[in-house]
């Protein structure tokens, strides 16, 4: 076993779990960090990343730190807590002299509609408050790297899906409903193309970036499967479930009414531009740099996702 310590923050999350699996496959030394949970078979430290002392202790002796946590999907929470988490993690990495690998999303890109496809070089003039937070924290990482405080790399994921991923839009809007015999519901047009990242691919890709020193100081789009429409996604789910559903679109007037009484819908409102336009993320940079990396095709990934919930 390699003696270098790989610390995974948010190890019980959708992508953090996949990072742990890839590190185990490579026989690396692992420490999982969670607020309260324990990870079976892996040294686990419970820590609140909003607390600098707890964060520093959790990252002690780390060589690599994977920041894969998720905060509640709430703008105010993101604005208040993400910068604190990032500041503490950067400080902890600096003290441990650890490399930081950050799982990011694509919210900072804008204005909408985005280029087709959009690359890492796309303008970051987002129209959403959540996107502004993502821009702030990704800048914090790149500035810390440029200043020589830490070595850091950013892996940016499209909307992800995968086994047991309950916070994927493909589960909440489609799979969960269809498993209950209900028609899938869409927040936007069902005939426009989007790209999605498979969680197990994300985990493998983050470790791949981490282990190549030449990737640091850069932003990388993590690999995606082929662009696909919601109508095509429903066809693939129907094949697995042996059903014949079609997606219904929730009218925007209805969404606005729902947002008055349902905080979760209100939080989604500012991100609806992603559902109104073709939204294709380019992973060319990653694929050209790592040509031997095999990306999971959507048909295989969605089948594995559905089967994880069926069982």
From TrEMBL:
Residues 7-211 form the NAD-dependent epimerase/dehydratase domain. It comes from the Bacteria. Transmembrane segments: none annotated. PANTHER family: BIFUNCTIONAL POLYMYXIN RESISTANCE PROTEIN ARNA, UDP-D-APIOSE_UDP-D-XYLOSE SYNTHASE 2. Signal peptide: none annotated. InterPro entries: Epimerase_deHydtase, Lipid_A_modif_metabolic_enz, NAD(P)-bd_dom_sf. This is Nucleoside-diphosphate-sugar epimerase. It holds the Pfam family Epimerase. It comes from Clostridium algifaecis.
């Amino acid at each position: 076993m390699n003696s270098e310590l790989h610390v995974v923050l948010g190890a019980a999350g959708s992508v953090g779990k996949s990072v742990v699996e890839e590190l185990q496959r490579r026989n690396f030394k692992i420490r999982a960090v969670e607020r309260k949970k324990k990870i079976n078979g892996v040294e686990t430290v419970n820590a609140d990343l909003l607390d600098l002392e707890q964060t520093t202790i959790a990252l002690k002796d780390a060589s690599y730190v994977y920041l894969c946590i998720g905060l509640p999907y709430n703008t105010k929470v993101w604005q208040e807590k993400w910068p604190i988490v990032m500041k503490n993690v950067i400080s902890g990495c600096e003290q441990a002299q650890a490399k930081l690998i950050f799982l990011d999303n694509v919210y900072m890109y804008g204005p909408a509609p985005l280029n087709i496809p959009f690359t890492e070089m796309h303008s970051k003039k987002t129209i959403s408050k959540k996107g502004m937070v993502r821009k702030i924290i990704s800048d914090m990482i790149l500035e810390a790297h440029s200043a020589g405080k830490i070595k850091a790399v950013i892996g940016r994921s499209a909307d992800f899906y995968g086994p047991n991923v309950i916070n994927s839009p493909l589960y909440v809007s489609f799979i969960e409903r269809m498993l209950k015999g209900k028609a899938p519901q869409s927040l936007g047009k069902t005939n426009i193309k989007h790209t999605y990242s498979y969680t197990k691919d994300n985990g493998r890709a983050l470790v791949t970036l981490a282990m190549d020193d030449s990737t640091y100081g850069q932003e990388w789009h993590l690999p995606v499967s082929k662009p696909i429409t919601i109508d095509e996604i429903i066809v693939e789910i129907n094949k697995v479930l042996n059903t014949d559903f079609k997606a219904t679109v929730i009218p925007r007037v209805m969404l606005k009414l729902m947002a008055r009484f349902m905080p979760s819908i209100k939080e989604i409102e500012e991100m609806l531009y992603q559902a109104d336009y073709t939204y294709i993320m380019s992973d060319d940079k990653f694929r050209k740099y790592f040509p031997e990396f095999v990306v999971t095709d959507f048909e295989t990934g969605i089948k594995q996702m559905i089967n994880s919930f069926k069982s």
